[in-house]
Structure formats: structure tokens, C-alpha cells
Amino acid sequence: MRSYRIALLPGDGIGPEVMEAAVHVLQAAAREYQFELSWLPALVGGAAIDACGKALPETTLEICQQSHAIFLGAVGGPKWESLPPEAQPERASLLPLRKFFGLYANLRPVTFYPELGPVSPLKEERLGKGTDILVVRELTGGLYFGEPKGIYPTGHGTERAVDTLVYETEEIERISRLAMKIAQARKRKLTVVDKANVLQSSLLWRKVLNRVAQEFPEVSLEFLYVDNAALQLVRDPRRFDVLLCENLFGDILSDELAGLAGSLGLLPSASLGSTRFGLYEPAGGSAPDIAGKGIANPLGQILSGALLFRYSLGEEEAARAIEKAVQKTLADGYRTADIATPGAHVVGTQEMAVAVAERIEPPN
Length: 364
Ligand code: NAD
Description:
Shape: globular
Bound molecules: nicotinamide-adenine-dinucleotide
Keywords: Amino-acid biosynthesis, Branched-chain amino acid biosynthesis, Cytoplasm, Leucine biosynthesis, Magnesium, Manganese, Metal-binding, NAD, Oxidoreductase
GO biological process, one term: L-leucine biosynthetic process
Domain Isopropylmalate dehydrogenase-like: 5-356
Protein name: 3-isopropylmalate dehydrogenase
CATH class of the largest domain: Alpha Beta
Subcellular location: Cytoplasm
């Protein structure tokens, strides 16, 4: 029987709750599609700081290295916000994990489920039935990593804060090629989000993209300033298919899209590098405002599991079965509190997972 090792990093806040729910669904799919999953639990984020003083302990890194993929919940929360910035859970665990494994591409598929039309802030006719947009976000460069970075004394009793937005040709080239390949396999349309009217880095992005585009003549390429992209996403999301963004713009626009789709709790993500190894986590954070209440939406975590099956394990059929089961569960009226409409059948985190697992169809 095919067998895979998955590093299981639930993290903080709602992380452990949505993770438990997702593992239930992934196990059900693995049983149905006849492969075996070994879960290798490890500490990350605030939970790891509390247990051993470090957000990303060595043992966690070793477990990740021994695995086919990393399945992560979320990290961070008010408890750790008073730590120095470089020791805080997100900065001290997620960024180094991405960097260590060279996970430079973050894929965030956003599906506008027709059943969730009423929870979207957009009018239903603007959403389009079943529109789906894929955000490809550069993940290991730009403002989040550029040096110098810090707050420095000016010598006049004040301080100066510096973040550096830096990109090199190769970093842009590899993500551009990946986005082009993805666009080629979809609707052959790629929209690149930048701020080329003011940023030098955007000019380099355009130069590299125009060159890479010559390898993909059948893909139509457009550039859009980020402020305009934010506006167009609200006016007419149907005009987009694949969006390629540098790190910061991708971070922001994918949350905007999550809001348009209905909830941050719905959105999965896959972080990939140059091999099949990847890190899979929902797009949202640790949601401290609802943690421990059993009401968090587990669908983003469950759908991240489907991406893990697809990209790191090559189990496409099982991945599709999970995605179809999520669709069916929504169509059957199940809702967590964040996507509830009047009269809906509102369920908790684990109940939602049980409903999805029950709807996984066997192989044809
Ligand atoms: P957040 O994404 O945790 O929450 C924003 C809003 O979305 C909240 O109202 C929350 O209840 C809601 N939400 C998020 N996920 C949900 C789900 N699955 N079901 C229902 N509702 C959901 O963002 P925040 O409040 O800005 O940050 C909280 C903490 O999470 C911070 O410590 C932050 O640093 C951290 N964070 C971690 C990650 C990560 O682990 N990848 C990402 C973003 C933020």
C-alpha cells in the first residue's frame, strides 16, 4: 500500500481544532483511496515557545525533513505579542520554515461557491457561478525578508524604521515560469499585480515577465497596478483567472479575496519549492477571538489537505474527492458560524468535518 509521512504542526489558537477536524477528513479519504498516512506531530509557534523557548525547535525541523509534506494550522496570538518582533511566532517559525525549505511559491485558490453567495459582500450577479481565482504569491523575497531591516536610532533622539523591498532576477523568473505554466493549464490568462509607476522592483518584475512570457505565447499577459487590482477584484472578480503577486501584495489581495468569497476560514494554501515537498496551511491566522469555542471553520484546513494530496503526494483523485465532498456539504446546507445565513444548519468545527468525511465518494 502507498504510504506517506506528514509532519503535523497544529500551532496556536484555532490551529489544533481545525487540524483535528482536517485529519479526520484526510484519514477518511486515505482509507477510501487506499493509501496510508503516518502523522508526525511537532510543536510550532507560541506552543513551541511555551514548551521549549523557541518558535521553531530543531526537533520540529527534523520531523519536517523526514516527511513528504508539512501540514500546519496557524501560529501566534496575544500571549506572545509582547516578545521582541524577531522572536514572535510568525516571524520566528513561518518565515524560517519557508526559507529553510525554499518554499518560494504560495498558491491560494479562491472558490466562490454559489451556495455562499448570500455571505459574500458582493452582489451575487457580480460573483459569477463557481468563479475560481488562483493567487500565486511570491513567498520568500520582497519586503518581508529584505535587508537592511530594523529600527535604528537617528542620533537626534528619534528613530528610523527600515524595510527593504528587494528582488533578484532569478527569484522573479522562477515564480513567473510557475505562474505561466499554471495559467497555461487553466484559462491561459495571467494578471501580474505590481506598482510599476513608483517601485523599481516592479520594473524588474515586468522586464523578467515579458521575457518569460515569450516561452508561453498562448498565455495572455496583463499588468495591473495593485491599487487598481484591489478595486477591480471588488467590481468584477470574474475577469481574473490567475493572479501573480509579489509577497506583500499577494498577502493583502488574497485576504481581500477571502472576504469576497465569504470567510477567511474557507481559504486553503500550498507553499511549494522546486521539489514535491510543500507546506500546507489555511490562509487565515490563529483567530484568537474564537479559539477554544469549537466554532472555527475547518474548511480552509481541510482544503489545504486536498492540496497536500495533489501537489506533494500526487493523489489527485483523493484530492478531488475531498474538494467535491466540501462542495456537497455546503450544498447540503451545513454552515459554520462565519458563513451562516438565516435559517442555515449551523454546526461546530468537528461536526462540519464529520459531514465532509461522510460525503467522500469512493473511486470510480
Ligand atoms: P486571523 O486570520 O487569525 O483572524 C481574522 C478574522 O478572521 C477573525 O475575526 C477570525 O475569527 C476570522 N477567522 C480566521 N480564520 C477563521 C476560521 N477558520 N473560521 C472562522 N473565522 C476565522 O487574523 P488576525 O486576527 O489578524 O491574527 C491573529 C493571530 O494570527 C495573530 O497573532 C497573527 O500574527 C496570526 N496570524 C498567523 C498566520 C499564520 O499562522 N499563517 C496568518 C495570519 C495571522
